[in-house]
Amino acid sequence: MLNSMDHPLIRRALSGLTPGFMRRVWEERHAILEAIECLPQTLCHLDAFRRNLFARRNAEGREQVVAVDWSYMGIAAVGEEIAPLVGASISFHAVMPADALKLEDIVLQGYTEGLRDAGWQCDPDLLRFGYAATLFWRYAIGAFAGEAVPWMLDERYHATIEQAMGRSMPELADHTAAQIDFFHHVYEQASRLKPTLG
Fold it and tell me: Are 79 and 46 in contact (CB under 8 A)?
């Protein structure tokens, strides 16, 4: 039986998820997830990214952002709210992985300023950890393990996927590989910040 890593698209897309890296992630999973749960909690949209956010002018002519699709709304850790804004924007090709670091900086700065405007003098390390740990576990592990492998392996859907995404399967595999490079950076942030949380 063919091992999934023997498939050329899988090798091309997931080469950055080495056994050593995945072993390290698995061994640290409980500590990281427990640390997320210990962060300050707040009400979150939890699916705020480009497709669910719209700019408009209100009755006074001021610009505002309107969020739709509140089906995931709930209480979550500080920083979790912005994980989809970065992760889903990259996954859905609204932002290319090459611009991920720039997007991350803009989002973290805006989120920090928004919390301060609301009256919370937050520790930037808390929200950066919440963001980084959530982004990695939701988009790197969840998306790649649960979604990337099946659609790359099942060639019956390749033509449909290529048409929907406007890119060839090799291009989509390269996009996934570039995402993984970015998610390595995200995971290192979470690992670095966790010991500082107490």
Answer: no
The percent of residues above 70 in pLDDT, for the chain, comes to 93
Position of tokens 């990695």?
136
Whole-angstrom distance, CA of residue 85 vs CA of residue 137: 15
End-to-end C-alpha distance for the chain, whole angstroms: 47
Instruction: Residue 182: name the closest of 89, 80, 99 by CA.
Output: 99
Could you tell me if residue 169 is inside a domain?
yes
Contact in structure between 90 and 145 (CB atoms under 8 Å): no
pLDDT tens digits along 33-63: 899 999 999 999 999 998 899 999 989 999 9
Look up the domain containing 171 and give its range.
4-40+80-197
pTM of the shown model: 0.85
Instruction: Say if CB 198 and CB 141 are below 8 A apart.
Output: no
Q: Has residue 119 been placed in a domain?
A: yes
Q: Number of structural domains, the chain?
A: 1
